[in-house]
Fold:
Amino acid sequence: MNKAILLLTACTGFTHTSEVVAQKQKPNIVLIITDQQRADLCGREGFPLPVTPYADSLASKYAWFNKAYTAAPASAPARCSLLTGRFPSATHVRTNHNIPDVYYEKDMLDMFKESGYRTALVGKNHTYRKGNTEFDYFVGYGHRGKDKPETNDEKAFARFLNKEVPGHYLKPAPFSVEQQQPYQIVSYALDWIQQQKDSPFFIQVSIPEPHTPSQVCDPYFSMFPPENLPPLLTSRKDLEKKGDKYVALAALEDKACPDLQQQIPQLRSIYLGMVRMIDDQIKRLMEGIKSCGQDENTLFIILSDHGDYCGEYGLIRKGAGVAESLTRIPMIWAGYGIKPQSKPMDACVSIVDIFPTLCSVVGAEIPVGVQGRSLWPMLKGEDYPCEEFSSIVVEQGYGGEDFTLEEPLTFEESGSCRTDVEGSFDGLNPWTQSGSLRMIRKGDWKLVMDNNGRGELYNLKADPSEINNLFDNKKNLSEQVDLLKDMITWNIRLQDPLPIPRSRYPFKQNPYNYHKNIYHE
Structure:
């Protein structure tokens, strides 16, 4: 234990230090992450179709969060935040094009290696880590197939994804479930897990779906017919209320997909089919781990990096703003050490909280510079400072002035779409990602502020689709002031402490990275 932690213990009376000393028997860690999976399309949140029955059963048996958020609604920023426990403003990875700029002192992979773990990544990486040299085992997949296709099936499936599915494939995919990527990824993961005997292991099972390209085979293609889906609560009629970035994204989507509005019902059906296919493969993975006797000492985490409009506001995929459909993520903790909870955990949490939590699980100190907080006490059913988890923030944007549709730059010139290939567009582009946004969630309320001082205030219980902006409404000024106070506090709190002073000044850090003492609130 370093001097800074000893100092904190002496000053605060914090006596629960068992999590920051070495443990004799470290648990295995299985981190299952999907790409672009919404939080609310599941039975545990009231969705009326059986899209995630297995994940729902785990949630009811163990613990889950219904106020879990990404750090930013884009893959690379979110995944770099997952590994480092730092928000994009600290990692400097604010877009998918800034991965080499990452800034941190010690990350999750470092921690596991120092703690004696064997490490593996199977599936999508999309971070600064080099899978083939920095993990003990790596099999890479992307959205267009396996990194290095070897078998005839892998090569055929990659050709299909690259040549026939620029954006979406509106028929049953001509490949079996066993040829789809989720199945293949789980197979590779199980092969490696079954070989682990003497050392604890960490494996990230990273499934590239339900991200674009949107395609799925039967029986999943036909499992949720468009005519049986619940109606959407929003449409293109609501875009003006959502602002210019949403309008620009709609213009881009219409240019790349002229028939999009007619296709949305089928695309929703395919999306749900992809999520159900993943759920079945998660079940296969966990049952396979149980069959080889590795489940009792294993902690499982299931989450996604961010969400998807999936038809909300007449849009698909992701891009503009920080709507709940993009920012709120599924998060389930199961297995080793988890105290079963009858209801969702009453805490606002983030993808950045996973790394510090795993530090507590393993018995490692949370590295300096980590901004997330350990969830381990609450997951074990112990006391924790509730106020610490009363709110959470999300970041979005790479800065500068907002791009508008009046710019001389065109969608095609920016590389945002190809009009010669229907469905080929990138929702993450100068029009949707320029400028900066900050979002805060607290209780039923949500506040968004941008770099031009424009605000949005929503009561998510009364207005889950975030259409009725209550910002500066006299009736809600007390909620607005409270959220602004919390947002400012978060903004100050997230000023990066790295590098810490080189001499004389000791650095004080709570063992769980709380900013409010658990015993002296």
Observations:
- The chain has 16 helices and 14 strands.
